[in-house]
Design brief:
The protein has 11 helices and 9 strands. By secondary structure, the chain is of the alpha+beta class. It folds into 2 domains: 234 residues, Porin chaperone SurA, peptide-binding domain (Triger factor/SurA peptide-binding fold), CATH 1.10.4030; 104 residues, Chitinase A, domain 3, CATH 3.10.50. The strands form 3 sheets. A 4-stranded antiparallel β-sheet has the order 5-4-7-6, sandwiched between helices. A 3-stranded antiparallel β-sheet has the order 2-1-9.
């Protein structure tokens, strides 16, 4: 089951920068990210908004003056057209095999808008950080690295990850300074009240806070292949039927699975642990959720081959109490409110700045 990690804002900002460098950012200005928990894990995903240098903060172009090699100017700091084109071409070169020919023009335009917007927001923040003389200590940078490391897959080294993405220590330092600036502006204003937590729970109780029905199953698989002819299929069907007879006569399920199953689960005696609806192919799911406990079911056929299923235990669907998810709701609402508040800070900076897009 996929876990959803509630990263710190520093890690989100830094990782967004990595995604932008690789050209895989989200270009849909109007797309909203909803809080969606992994099924049955009771985790809530934080909404990530314009505070991570996305396209949600509007940029108002200035007078269209002759620009030469200037693409955009923010309070006198410029991004050259030649630099912008170089970055766009680098991204397209890396991803050219993954972009359909008829989509390359739109992709180029979206990347251009994304890079311009990122330049504007980063420049606004950099100017404000310089104005306020905000610094980042070695300890603060270390903590930021640790948070990014915690968000990576097990075994993935952070320095290796940075090297792959071409990310320098300066990027981490900048993210730390932004976090400090954000805390100056927002502080604890975003802390949700108990009333807000309870309202979110009640509004989403039937959608987010339900532990779905599950069954604990084990199985034996005799796999079939696409090029199996009728004779081979008949031999495999006979094999699975003989295995079922042995089970009905008292054979040891785990032992027979270890010796005969073509599923990797054979190492655990065919045990798949608890499964929920939607996690297996439909014929397997239908059999697993309809069989009685401990019964050796009939042979069923799926796209993988022939199976014998035994249900070992059942857990009915149940509602999850507010107390069990209160901290997760609080963290989600806190992150959401901070993102919204910081969006307002960015818009205020933008309104005071002189931004010209040529």
């Amino acid at each position: 089951m996929k876990n959803i990690i509630n990263r710190s804002w520093i890690a989100i900002f830094v990782l967004f920068t990595f995604v932008l460098v690789s050209g895989c950012g989200d270009n849909d200005k109007n797309k909203k990210k909803s809080p969606v928990p992994a099924v049955g894990t009771n985790q809530i995903q934080p909404a990530v908004s314009g505070s991570t240098a996305s396209n949600t903060v509007p940029i108002v172009a200035g007078d269209q003056a002759p620009s030469g090699d200037i693409a955009v100017s923010v309070d006198g700091k410029i991004l050259k057209k030649s630099e912008l084109e170089k970055k766009i071409n680098e991204m397209i070169k890396k991803l050219k095999d993954k972009i359909p020919a008829d989509k390359q023009k739109d992709f180029r335009e979206n990347i251009k808008k994304q890079l311009v917007n990122t330049f504007v927001i980063r420049t606004l923040l950099a100017n404000e950080i310089e104005k306020r003389k905000i610094e980042a200590s070695d300890q603060e940078i270390k903590l930021a690295r640790d948070k990014v490391q915690a968000s990576l897959p097990p075994g993935k080294k952070i320095d290796e990850f940075f090297k792959e993405k071409g990310i320098s220590k300066e990027e981490i330092t900048f993210a730390v300074k932004i976090e400090k600036f954000r805390n100056m502006e927002i502080g604890n204003k975003a802390k949700p009240s108990q009333k807000e937590i309870a309202k979110f729970y009640n509004d989403n109780r039937d959608k987010l806070f339900v532990e779905p029905e599950s069954v604990h199953v084990r199985h034996i698989l005799v796999a079939t292949k696409k090029d199996d002819d009728d004779k081979v299929k008949a031999q495999k069907k006979e094999k699975i039927e003989n295995l079922r007879k042995q089970l009905l006569n008292g054979g040891n399920f785990a032992e027979l699975a270890r010796k005969n199953s073509d599923c990797p689960s054979k190492e655990a005696g065919g045990d798949l642990n608890f499964i929920r609806r939607g996690q297996t192919v439909k014929p397997f799911e239908d059999a697993a959720f309809s069989q009685q406990k401990d019964v050796i079911g009939p042979v069923i056929t799926t796209e993988y081959g022939y199976h014998i299923i035994q249900v070992l235990d059942r857990k009915p669907a149940k509602k999850i109490a507010l107390e069990a998810v209160k901290d997760k709701i609080s963290a989600y609402l806190d992150q959401k409110k901070k993102s919204e508040a910081f969006d307002a800070v960015l818009k205020n900076l933008q309104q005071k700045a002189k931004i010209i897009i040529y």
